[in-house]
Amino acid sequence: MVRLNDIASAAARVKQDRKAMSCLIRLAYDKETLAGWRAEVPEGFRFALKAPQRITHQKRLSGCEETVAFFYRVVAELGGKLGPVLYQLPPNMKKDLPLLASFLDLLPPGGRAAFEFRHATWFADDVYGALRARNAALCVAESEELEVPLVATADWGYLRFRKADYGGPDLEAWAERLRDQPWTEAFAFFKHEEEGKGPRLAAALLALVESRP
Prior knowledge:
By secondary structure, this protein is α/β, with parallel strands linked by helices. The chain has a single domain, classed as Alpha-Beta Barrel (TIM Barrel), CATH 3.20.20. Helices cover 42% and strands 15% of the residues. The protein contains nine helices and six strands. Strands 1-2-3-4-5-6 form a six-stranded parallel β-sheet. Helix 6 (97-104) packs parallel to helix 7 (125-133) and helix 8 crosses helix 9. The radius of gyration is 17 Å and the shape is globular. Mean pLDDT is 85; it is low at 1-28.
């Protein structure tokens, strides 16, 4: 079992050099640094990555075969500690089902990919079907700007909690919704990193989810 304090300590060490992390974003990650991250964290820890904007914003999922292949060759350095990869699309990118289907074909089998759609046209049954065919998760991102439906498109879930704050009743409501999902596991992220509240909120949500069978 991985203890929360072990994870927090390892994550703190990994995040010490913010300049290096910024460079990695620009360079689409670096194998040597990723190998160092892999060695720093305990067994059971997994890195959830965000795909480079070169794929999602510049190329907008089109004509990026080489970029996707390079990205996965590099992040393979994380080995079994590689978790899901989030593809966050631009807010002005509307639904294009053939494009999505073609892009899904580029992803390595067995890997986990989550898609955060920020235009309401994507929230449709045919999109959910395309994601289900590849066991890719619909990213359920709760914010003030857009309401994303809680739809399971994979046997695992991916959630981003982006509102300004979450009180006890908010977390209890989400715990109830999460318990109803058919997922074997879920990755949940809170926005509140600057205030330092994210870990506390995540721990509270986890406790609520696990408080009932």
